[in-house]
Every structure is written in C-alpha cells, then in structure tokens.
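Researcher: I'm preparing a figure for a lab meeting and need a structural model of a single chain. I don't have an experimental structure, so a prediction will have to do for now. The sequence is pasted below. Please return the structure as tokens so I can convert it later.
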Amino acid sequence: MAEDKKISLGIYKSQQKLLGAMFGIVTVPSSLKIVDINTGILNEGEGNQRSWANLTVVDTLLYEKFESIGQEKFCPTFKVKLKNYLGEDLSQLQDMEISFETYELAFITEKYKQPLGFALVLELDTISVNWEISTMKKVQSVFRKFISLKWYYQLAIALASTGVVALLVKFLIWFVPIIGATLARLFVFTEGEIFSTMWESYNQRKQSPSNPLFITVYHRLAEHCVTDLPVSTLQFVQGVEFPDINQGLYFVHIEKEITDGLL
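Model: Understood. Here is the structure written out token by token.
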C-alpha cells in the first residue's frame, strides 16, 4: 500500500513552493460542472487595468448524487480562476461540464490575506467542454423534472404540446406550397438569375470592406490618368469599376495582368 504523501513543517521559499508541496494532497475532480460565472476588470480606468474571470463549479459526480435526491442546491462548490483571461465571452460555458489535463492551485484568502481554502487555476485554452454529455444530461434533467410533476400537470403539458405540434403541421402544410410556388415563379420570370444574384450578394457581404484610403487614392490616380507609379508603389492592384444599384460603384480586382495583346 502506497504511503500517504505528507508535507514537512517549516517555511517554504514562496507561496508557489508551498502550493507545489500540497499539489498531490488536494483532491481535484476530473470533471466539473459550471454553475456560475463572474467576470470583471481590475484597476478599471487605469493604465494597468486587466480582465479577470472566476468560475463557480461543482464536482460532476457529487452533483449527480445531490441531484438524484433533489438537493442539488446544497452541493459543495469551489472556485476556478482563469489564468491569462483576456475578456472572452464565457456565457456558453454556463451549466456545461468541462474537463482539463493541466491545472494549478491558488489560495483563497480573506480580507486580511489569511488563507481560507484552495481554488483551481486553469487556462481557457486547456479547458475541454463536454458538449454531448452536457446536452444529454440537460435533457435527462428536464425529463426527471417532468416525471416528478403531478399527473394532471403532466397531462396538461402533453395535451398542450400535442396541440402546438398539430397547429405547426397544419401551418406548414398551408404555407410551404405558397413559398414553393412563389420561388418557382421568380425562377421562371428571372430565368434563374435571382438565386445566383442572391448568392453573389451574400458572398460580397462576407468580404471585408475595402480600405477607404485605398479607394480615395485609386480615384485620385484615375482622375489624373496616372499610369506610371513610383518605385515604392510598384505593387498595385488592377481591375475595373462596376456600378451596382444597391452598393454603388465598387472595384472588381483582376489578378491576371491585362496586356495590349489580350485587349
């Protein structure tokens, strides 16, 4: 039987050294469930301000035991500090199960800097979200809550759901043929160009807007019929202007050089 790890009395060189000595003693769950997220800005308005984020989590296995008896709100929680947090959106992590391979420990202190406990320190890049497991458990949780309701509530929910589904099916049966007929007429009247035009317009919206300075310089050069560029600006883009009713005049880039022979 392996001998339990112990730490010696005495003074350690730093707080990190002490935490390192306790690393193998503190029990860390392999999977956590996030129950709350807190973010903020440290030293806001000052030159050294930075973002911070803490996650309130529970041991997944322990939480399931509390949840099975309807007492999940009494499940013990602890804090996870996010290291090198840069203000990313964490809302998608709410109520999700996460796992990790590497971690650090940190002391939780009170206002007089006396240690009260431990917190886990993780980097956002090292966190893996168990999407499928989290979604499945959410569905199971909803189903368990439905089963725990009184029979007349279950009957009312079942009847209401059936009515909503029936109305939706009737609406689709009536609405889909109208949409299909309208699209078919548009296709015939425009000889199929409407769909290609819509697709090109969608692709143009996804493209990043041109630099306004580039457009201004281009028009100034075009107005003065400048063809010989200085040596420092020999890298240029050629193309043609194309008028569009919705977007106005825009520039179409041509990658291949247009020579007199091609013209």
